[in-house]
Amino acid sequence: MESVDHLGEMGDTITVARGYARNYLIPKGLAVLATDGHRKMVAEHMKLETKRDDLRRAGAEELAAKLGELSCTIPAQAGDDDQLYGSVTARDIAEALQNDDIEFDHKMIVLDEAIKQLGVYSIPVKLHSEVEVTAKVWVVKP
Asked: I need a labelling partner for 6 at 20 to 30 A (CA). Which of 55, 71, 80, 141 fits?
């Protein structure tokens, strides 16, 4: 019914331990038993999800075109060697990118590790699994 990391994509038929299916996958609505009736239901569900995903992607592309180039400045305490006393995380960047029109979730910010130096960084922001924009983040002393 849904894509599950390290297990399978939506619509796949897989074999798992009974306890995992009974206690986790089925109660959370992530999977159903592979009967003929359920297979038809999953096929119909996949058609609807494909249409919804196309609409979400179109909306994300429209938003990306509207946003253009994102940038923000984050003041942070740092020592003489430009090493930050703390770090700048995805939450900090999402908070700094907020504006009147759009709210950014920290999960949209693709940050491999926290920023620990002053400087200018190009950070990818995923609006959709296939749509990504780049934000220029300036980390400066206050």
From this structure: 55
Helix (H, G, I), strand (E, B) or coil at 20: helix
Q: What does DSSP assign to residue 30?
A: S
Residue 26 lies in a domain: no
User: pTM of whole model > 0.90?
Assistant: no
Cβ neighbours of residue 122 under 8 Å, at least 6 residues apart?
134, 135, 136, 137
Q: How far is residue 42's CA from residue 45's CA, in Å, rounded to a whole number?
A: 5
Please give the Cα distance from 93 to 11 (Å, whole number). 35
Whether residue 37 lies inside any domain: the answer is: no
Q: Could you give the number of structural domains in the chain?
A: 1
pLDDT of the chain, 142 residues: tens digit per residue: 888 888 988 888 899 999 999 999 999 999 999 899 999 998 998 999 999 999 999 999 988 888 888 889 999 999 999 999 999 999 999 999 887 677 888 999 999 999 999 999 999 999 998 899 999 999 999 8
* DSSP state string for 100-117: SS----GGGB--SS-EEE
